[in-house]
Amino acid sequence: MALATKECLLVVFLWSLTVVLGQNGWGVTYYTQSICALKGSTVELSCTYKYPSGLQITSAFWFTKGPNDDPVNLMEDPDYKDRVIYHSDDENGHKLTIKDLRKSDSAVYKSRFFTVGYKYTGLPGVNLSVTDLQVNMTAATVTDGGSVNLTCNTTCTLIGHTYIWYRNKQLLTNQEVSLHLNPVSSEDAGNYSCAVKGLESLLSPEKKL
Length: 209
Known about the structure:
CATH architecture of the largest domain: Sandwich
Strand content: over 45%
Mean pLDDT: 84
CATH superfamily of the largest domain: Immunoglobulins
Largest sheet: 5 strands, mixed
Helix content: under 10%
Order of helices and strands: EEEEEEEEEEEEEEEEEEE
CATH topology of the largest domain: Immunoglobulin-like
Number of helices: 0
Number of domains: 2
């Protein structure tokens, strides 16, 4: 049987891996199995639907809660109030935007679509992990002539980002995940924080050196 396909893209800050699931002419394609995103940022998810020809998609939504046979539409979930946007049309399919990400948004996101007389849920979905930034210092004590390693830590791996470091809110030239001070001098004293390029407003808490 010929198949009709609606295509859409998954826009995130990392490389993508295509996962296609479905049977008997039905399916949902997710372009990544997992996403790591920064707290306070925005993420977009989308998919490709596959269904038997002759049918037409009447509606679609994303969810994280509820059983697969009775899920809660994110647009009706109070935990996502005013932070989610659906984009849907016959040309480009269905996309979800989540703004102002919170750590509590870490979950598996699934898409469900409807045709006349049928409904289909794409499994297993996309695993979203939301992290913040924390500066970790390896040296227990700091003395002149010693060495210190500062690392911008996350609870999941942010892919495709450039890290930015600040001392006393002044931008440093280092653009790596770790900042090495060797040897340490009195001029290095101050409060250090890190961010990722393009999301400079989402600074880590400061670490005193």
